[in-house]
């Protein structure tokens, strides 16, 4: 008996292969994968098959991005997640258990700060915040329960730079897992694993994607360490969607070109801001006036597309300049082709107390700029009229 047309529509040629050879990886827009027999499923469950079972576990489109990320970071393996915060949670919940202690830099992205201070401790993990200046001596600070160290460089939004090699070496001497958020640098400007870090994290929403149209996170490190984190991603459900995986991989193809242009433009903008009478201070690692310029020169091949300035008259003055911007868009996030401005007090550091802001080095007059691909003369003209 011939199948009903409804059945034929559902079951005809879904998995058929033709003679087309695609230049780019196709999008595997499927939630599940078909097996020919129980023996094939058993082989998969026993780890002796390279087939795919379910897209929450793994998907070819997502795997392609992970392979690309591992290659550019010089890592044995990588995994991507549905957001940068999903990557943070995957790393911390995958590595720590009740009774462990996390040592965290006191100057970190606000979302990370709230996760470790408000959520992680509810599960029995103690958290100790460490001043940036003490990270290189973390081996003398760590107690017997310490298991991991979380830090950033460059730091959001002050762009302070930690001596990555010294911090990683101190962690290794004490048997601590070192985890670095390298989002602001991107793999183009900074290679944390080569400097001794165990695990590098990115909000892939930013420079890795670069077009402000994907939300994603990424982790890269040794095969052993990434394998420890696979369960946390699988069971928390923070996997990246295949469509987003495709878009992320496409954005990464132009990463080097984009970041090189952003490095150059940000340097021009930073130098101009440093000479403006309304700007009390400029934070950019490429400037000799930056407190960590020597550190940045040692460990970075470019200084990034982020520029932070302090309007010396405080929050209200920063708001007035912010509201006058015309070309530079007022928005959160960073790393895209369009230039953006945010006020840390209202975004990345929103909700922090005065003492926490001081510990993070954040002032009320700060404005953070993510420099895009516009001509730097146009960006400077916009800043000039806004500051006038």
Write a compact overview of the structure shown:
Helix 4 (84-95) packs across helix 9 (223-236) and helix 13 crosses helix 15 (376-387).
CATH architecture grouping of the largest domain:
3-Layer(aba) Sandwich
- Give the helix level as a range of percent: 25-40%
Shape: globular
- What class, by secondary structure content? alpha/beta
Number of strands: 12
How are the secondary structure elements laid out?
Layout lengths: L4 H7 L26 H8 L14 H14 L3 E5 L2 H12 L5 E5 L4 H10 L6 E5 L7 H4 L4 E7 L11 H10 L3 E5 L4 H4 L9 E4 L14 E5 L1 H14 L5 H11 L2 H20 L4 E5 L9 H7 L6 E6 L3 H10 L4 E2 L9 E3 L11 H7 L5 E5 L5 H12 L1
Helix pairs in contact: 3-10, 4-9, 11-15, 13-15
What would your notes on this structure say?
The protein has 2 domains: 38-252, Aspartate Aminotransferase, domain 2 (3-Layer(aba) Sandwich); 255-387, Aspartate Aminotransferase, domain 1. The chain is globular. α11 (255-274) packs parallel to α15. The protein has helices spanning 5-11, 38-45, 60-73, 84-95, 110-119, 138-141, 164-173, 186-189, 223-236, 242-252, 255-274, 293-299, 315-324, 354-360, 376-387; strands at 77-81, 101-105, 126-130, 146-152, 177-181, 199-202, 217-221, 279-283, 306-311, 329-330, 340-342, 366-370. With 388 residues, it is of the alpha/beta class. The model has no long low-confidence stretch (mean pLDDT 94). The strands form 2 sheets. The chain has a 7-stranded mixed β-sheet, with helices on both faces. Strands 8-9-12-11-10 form a 5-stranded mixed β-sheet. It contains 15 helices and 12 strands. β4 (146-152), α7 (164-173) and β5 form a beta-alpha-beta unit.
